[in-house]
Amino acid sequence: MIVRDSALTLIVSVIATLVVDIADAAPEFGKLVVLHRHGARTPMGVVDGALVCAYPYCQLTNQGKDMCRTLGRYISTTYNSTGLINLPENYNVSFMSSIGTDYSRVVVSGEAMVMGLYEGSPLQALPFVDFIPITDDVELVMWKSWPSYIIRNTYDTEVHVDDAWVRAFINESHLTELGQYFGIEALCASSPTDCVGFVQDSIACNVSSGSPVPSWIFERWEDYRVVVSKFLALMLGYDPSDSYDQNVGSFGYPFATSALKFLTNPNSGLLQLRHFAAHDWTLIAVYSALGIWTPPDAGNTTFVPRFAETLLLEQWTDSGVTYIKAKWGYPNQTSGSGYAYNFRVANMSCMSADGVVYGALSTAQSWCPVDDLWRFVNSTAPLSALGNCYATDDSLQAQNCDGDDAPPAGSRCLFYRQKCPAASCGQTDGAIADPARGYMCQSQQLGKDTPFMAATIVALVAPALLGGAITGFYFTNKFRSVFWSLTGTAPPSVDEKQPLAQEK
């Protein structure tokens, strides 16, 4: 009896010890997603009264490269050197991937980050930054790729919404003075929101390069940032009470879901780090999809991204449960400052199974259980089956895209029909855009007609062909981006004359 009692006591003791060990086990780090804006650049130009952010303007500066190298060093010391991730000593694309957008300042920023991450390695990194054409990049450049955005002419739809408020908030006479100083009088008179956005951006560029800013302008920088914050909210913030936003979904939804799939995929092999270089607009869209930005934040200058501002998404496992923690930060923006980063935990929105939304900062570890984060992100998914092909009748009519005729070359209607050939087209019920006829509306009842069959083949086969084309772009762009990095030069950007906020 004594032996039995002793054995039972020993078993209970061992079980208790195991329970304590499990309860006290530290959370385990898994994978990491890094999304950052490009580094500091030169200011925009004004040509024929229009804002221009194409070559030779808006080029990445040495300060911008240094910012992104500093980010790479931070990732190395915070995650790799501490063993949270285990990248090999030499650069290896099997362990990390880097994706940018088809803008030279973004690709070179991404390369600089990788160079900083592998600084001091025995074999200096030769960074590989993939990118695809901006008109196909639905995750990082939605303002150039989403048909719904293009057909709605969203920029022009939103840019003047707050003009009256801006005139009152900034003051008419001050707007006039800004126009005279920067040589943009006509812009400041016709579009005060664009005017203030240009000035805010110019200050940021000058601060980063060490160029002087007049005190009467610098002292109102925060006011200018309020204006820009409200505008970015209109452009990119997902409002769950807005019917258009509901149908199209959050601009950041594609990236957020892609990131979560990577972070929670147990079959991602050696890949531990996904790195993305993009734009300030990209960040705001993703902040919105993750619930870091919410509609009440309109006007909050926290949500005017700085150069090289960065979002980190960390995957953790604790007692068998997967969690996601978000951190965000940006480097010191002043030229010659060393560009040290200051990261803090971001208050993502989590949604419980019963639909209650709560902030990650309200939890003990400041994170979201992955199921709760998925629920919130999916709450920003498009309600319309058309997704980013959704268009209102008013938008189609405004772009002369409600008729059956083939749209003119270079028109918003043509872009829309090329991207969404199977969407409702023209005045005939059930018609779709026929590429064999210049994307005129063609009844599906003519399915045996050769032109329509050609349209059907294109609609079905084009995605596969596009996949091959994108693969080709990746390899072509590898050599092009290496040329940019090694020579310090860049060809003319794909940007065109466009309003300030279209640049990013």
TrEMBL record:
Question: What domain of life?
Answer: Eukaryota
Q: Does the keyword Ribosomal protein apply?
A: no
Q: Supply the InterPro entries for this chain.
A: His_Pase_clade-2, His_PPase_superfam, Histidine_acid_phosphatase
Q: From the record, give the transmembrane residue ranges.
A: 452-475
Which controlled-vocabulary keywords does the entry list?
Hydrolase, Membrane, Signal, Transmembrane, Transmembrane helix
CDD domains, per the entry: HP_HAP_like
Gene Ontology MF terms in the entry:
phosphatase activity
Is Membrane found in the keyword set? yes
Q: Where is the signal peptide?
A: 1-25
Q: Which family does it belong to?
A: Belongs to the histidine acid phosphatase family.
Protein name (database record): Histidine phosphatase, putative
Q: What is the lineage of its organism?
A: Eukaryota, Discoba, Euglenozoa, Kinetoplastea, Metakinetoplastina
